[in-house]
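The authors assume throughout that readers already know how a fold can be written as discrete tokens. What matters is that the chain and its backbone geometry are given together, residue for residue. A single example would do more here than another paragraph of explanation. For illustration, here is how one protein appears when written out as sequence plus structure tokens.
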Amino acid sequence: MKQNNFKDLYKYAQENEAKVKRGIIYSVLNKLFDLAPPVLIGIAIDIVVEGSESFIGNFGFEDRRQQLIILAFITFVIWGFESIFDYVAAVTWRNIAQDLQHSMRTETFKKTLNLDLSFFENKSSGRLMAILNDDVNQMENFLNEAANRLIQTATTVIVIGATFLYISPLVAIFAFIPIPVIVFGSYKFVQRIGERYSKIRNNVESLNAHLSNSITGILTVKSFNREKKEYKRIDSASNEVKTSNYDAIKLSAAFIPIIRVAILFGFTATLLIGGFLALDGQIKVGMYSVMLFITQRLLWPLTELGIIFDSFQKAMASFRRIMNLRDTNPTIDDGETELLELRYKISLENLNFEYVKDFPVLKNINIEIEKGKTTAIVGSTGSGKSTLIKLILRFYEKNSGKILFDEHEIESLSLESIRNKIGLVSQDVFLFEGSVFENIAYGNVEANSEEVWNAARLSESDRFINDLPNKEDTIVGERGQKLSGGQRQRISIARAILKNPEILILDEATSAVDNETEAAIQESLETLKEGRTVIAIAHRLSTIRNADLIYVLEDGEIVENGTHDQLLGNNNVYANLWDVQTGKTKKY
């Protein structure tokens, strides 16, 4: 992956180009007025020492008091402008930081949303949060202060260099001898500190991943009394962050003293050579004082150079991680054909799939899912049922074989059109933090209240919703933890109902409800199935006994198919599963 630098950041910020240019101008003007006081002090000394021959006296103001009054007025104006430009520069750069923070986070998040499901299954949410939140905030911290300081430091060097050359080229040469040393040292510092900050950001990512796991799985943590284990895990990860920060601090802290020693040489040269020239009458006392004062003004910005580069490298370490995420592309290519409607059937022909090479999950699958009918896929846990659904939704790319929607191969169809036609009720129910109705309305964001209530009634959700403290406005909590498993499942079904899909996939849709609720939901689902193509994934065979066609999947292969009665008559795998679930026999 290429190494991103400040130029890349500036290119990324081109959407705020006008604001960035204004910020640069404000920063330069602020520093120009900020550097004026040493000159004003020199002029004041010049007035006292030279009298009518002073700088202001040369403009026809011979009286020293009058000159001081004029100087006081000029000082007031300059300090006023310095304060104004300090304010507008700070506001402009902080606004730029907020704009870039917002666009960087939202654009990266948008790009991330379009990545394949496999990416999210291989990358923990905590690690993604570290990039989308912590790393983006690191960029904001740099743009808030350090960018402004960097511009002002460059302005300081240029202005003071020009002033020295104007007063005495000889002093300028000796005073600025340390600058190349500082520049070279800064370059080497940036190289070395960058690697250390990249390590810090990676360790922070790991820490966030552990924190996310511990907090998300708090029920499991507490039920197994593993608070101490989780504490040790976080303590270890946090210690890694601390140690890598120690390593960076050692180098970072050494940079400023080295710069101060280099600047000392320049200040001593100005003190001695400038002093000798003033004693010899080659420069005025006022000019000599100006040189001493502005050398001091040069000292502090250059000592801050270490802080600026330190902040810069922290930002670049984060920027590289953000851009690496943005540069990640989906492995599934979107098709161009729109799936307008399913006219006949979905066909799976000689389908093979494996998550890991040489470990097949589905083997030579042949299934036909006819329009308007209910097709069930059953089998024991781990047989590959849910994987089939992921392939039909094209969350994963098959290894070989075909998936056809009528005559269209799935690769030729747009992902959006496929998923718009399908409503999924998964066994892994996820509810967003918000109200009950907000979660149901997720199936159709344009639905009105009456349509949401109708979906709730059809899913048998309306009964428990009316019993909640705030009814439909009740907050469900993170991942719906304030509701029971059955209640979450019914809201998930209502969400799919509201979408009103042409194809309905029920992946263990009633796995988390009791028998009475299951019977009520099944009755509602019978109504929903009319005119729809239904794919029912089931472990509990009672939920699919009325399906038009049942495929039995074992160890990734279709071992038999038929109606419920036909499969019982075969006295094979399905019949064995049925006997186990109805209590007639035990499976060993």
The mean pLDDT is 77. The first strand starts at residue 345 and ends at 356.
